[in-house]
Every structure is written in structure tokens, then in C-alpha cells.
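ugh ok fine here u go
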Amino acid sequence: MTEFNQKPSALFWVLGVLFLLWGLMGCGMYLTEVMMSDRAYEETFGQDLFAVRHVYPVWAMAAYASAVWSGLLAAILFLLRKRVSAVIFIVSLVAAIIGFIPTFTNSVLKEAAGSGYWVMPVIVVVLGALEVWYSRKQSAKGILR
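structure:
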């Protein structure tokens, strides 16, 4: 069979929709965080996180934005069966890792976030690695073209 005749499995579509939903959630969280007033931020996340809201570096916020928007783009391209989605998933994962650097290196941010500061970064990196692995696997099978 040529690569244009390869049919995706049901798992492809299920994971593709989950990747899309994950990307939409990430973009929604990003927009929520950056558009919240200080008062709303404090009410939502608490006084400790509000106190360090402006400590988070601009470059890390830029990486966060890059990670979520490129992840959403990659998910859309994945569902459209475009091979470039695998590369964009890699960009998204790298941007996410860069965006989490202050979470692990800045003691003020770690203290404000509490003992579970590492949970969300681990979830994001694991799911990002799954997206990269699965999209590369589908590309190698000829499902993505």
C-alpha cells in the first residue's frame, strides 16, 4: 500500500481527539492566567501564588505560550494527518520544559506552589512525550503524510 492508502486506526482518532482536547485545555489555562485581573487571580489561586505572580520570568511565560499554542496546532495537524505535526509536538514539548524551569529552580516559586509544585510539570512532560512518540510512530507507518 502507498502512504495515501493507509487508514488510521480507531486508536489514532481517539488519541488525536484527546491531544486536541489537551491542547484546548492548555490554551484555555494560558488565556485564563494571563487575562485574569490581580484580584481574580488571588481569589482563584490564593494569596501565596498571587504574591509571586509577577516573579515568574517573562521568558518562561513566552515559553508557556509557545508550548500551548504549538501543541494545539500540532494536534490539529495530527488530526489532518500531516507529518509536520510530529515536529511541532517536539517544539511544544521543548517549550513546555523551558517554561517549567523556574518552577524547579526558583525557591520562592516552589515555596508558594507548595509540595505538589512538580505534579503538573510531570503530567505535561509525560503527555507531551506521548504526543511526540505516537505522532512519530504514525509518521513512520505512513499514516501522517
